[in-house]
Amino acid sequence: RITSSSSSSISLARGNSNYYKPQRDEKPSNIRYDDGNDGDDYSDYEFDDDGMMEDEQYFIQQQRLTSSIDCPHFGTCPGCVRDTNIAEIDVIESAKLFFSSSSIQKHILHDNNRHTNYDDDDDEEGFYKIKIPSSVTQWRTQAKLAVSAASTWTRAAGCKIGLYKRHSHEVLSIPDCQVHHPSINKAVDVLTKATQTVRTPAYHEDTGEGLLRYVQCQMELSTGKVCLSLVMNAERFKDCQPHLSFLVKELKRNGNAKLWHSIWCHCNDSKGNAIFARDVSRWHPVDGPPYVRESIPGSDPDKREGLLYFSPYVFRQGNLEGFGEIAKQVREAIPRGSKVCELYAGVGLLGLSALLHHGKQQAAEEDGVQGLGWLRCSDENPENARCFERAVNSMSMHITGRTPKKFQNNGKKGSRRKQGRKKKSRPGDNGEMSIKDLMDSMVSENDGSPRPPENDPSERVTYMQANAASALHRGEALGANVLIVD
Description:
Helix content: 25-40%
Oligomer: single chain
Radius of gyration: 26 Å
Strand order of the largest sheet: 6-5-4-7-8-9-10
Shape: globular
Number of strands: 16
């Protein structure tokens, strides 16, 4: 039972199923938990990693499940399918039917890695729960938007930026979108006005003429600044001039320079609906640093435990805060000491989050159980591998097993070049495990026979540039006991 004793205090008592719905989507403050006795008792409550009580999480979830987005563009904009009760959509109903199937439930492992029977209806909700991982508004920190001419008569009207209307290629402006982070709405507004001032020609799909075709906005959570990518209808960077220079100069005028993290130009003169060309040479930095940096989920930014790096031409989740909650569930489901292979890894968000989590546990508990045995990630975009390497280098060497570059070769430059290329080792050499060694270890695992030597610590965290099929064929998952497929 929830009773409000004042505007700033909420009293909770056990024994009734009624609940109070917070009016704002924020962590409730000044909450008093009353067990019915005269004294306060917190012993029956469990806390999560963020220090939030279970009841507190429950109230926030109930508020999110029942709150409205209240977007003025709903109905005409194709971006959202519901404005209220956002969990009541077809895909979630389909997921409920799938996971409630007895043929699925009998294969599920509970938190203690034991099979659990969920035939009882009362246990069904304990098996799966609908959870909204972030606020229902202002959560989108990445947006890809289409561009068209605001007027067919004059370029002075500038460009119209937004989403295509349903079943058409007519651009609908959404300046007051409630799911976009305010920084993205601000960036689109500044860009729209800039195209009017410098008369930027918009791309015309019917004729193939014009210049500005799409825009991508990526917001850096720690600073609120926006990485802006301008997709131009051109084959080469110089073909975007002088309009690109005029537009960038205007974007940085009138105090707006602080809004931008960086500005990029992407050349895409192909036909069709593809926003980006696959050729990485089509990307050109115009202004600002090359990477947007975000904290690894589960890290403490004040302790500098590690960063994720995103360039504009790698995949990034639209709801990065919400995906951090998914990363939390994934890393907690992985047993300590596991050898993890992540396919479709992108920049390695899930794998690195698990690596950091178990590395911190190892340091805190000192029980002799190591963090992760090793972590192997893979994806086919070459830029993903570069972002991954930067992220690993930002983490502690006690977690990654890597020696920082400044300590390699005793700080001497050029020694690596003098050594020349090392001869590529064959499977089984230098402590690497061959397929035969692996099979022998599996057979003799329980009879006390000696195990093959462990891999070099420097190879404990690696990235392979390959699609999932190629990575598996090349043995990326060989020896892994946890496979992450996102």
